Amino acid sequence: MNSCYIVDVGLVGYAEAWELQKRLVAARKAGAIADVLLLCEHPHVITLGRNGKREHLLASEQVLRQKGVEFHSSDRGGDITYHGPGQLVGYPILNLGAIRKDVVWYVRMLEELTVEDRLNDEVREILIAHQDEMRRTSVSYQEMYKKVKQQLARDRKLILR
To answer: Is the pTM of this model over 0.85?
Structure first.
């Protein structure tokens, strides 16, 4: 099993985090470090990915400056993305070839795990709210968990694997 270090650098500017990522990527490629998951928060920032269009940014640079929001172009995919305080951002720096040489697959798996985790949180909240009903009807926690999760997935048109 591969190891992955988790490093939480707290609140850090986007440009500073980007420079740190480049150094970590070089060290990872050289085999000097193991896989790393870099966690942080950013001050208010909007990034424009390489697939993005500047006209999708609906605020002028003057408005962004007045609001204290930085703007950075990025070589990553995607369009316009906002990051800000209180939002956890994760930057995986890993040898993807050791897992599967497919970036699209990897991103889809991250998305799926995120959706699944949020869905599980919602299911737990619903089950806690209906504990008394579950006791009265003798439905097991596992049965109710599965039913609620399936219903939430149908409501959101999600495909669960």
So the answer is: no
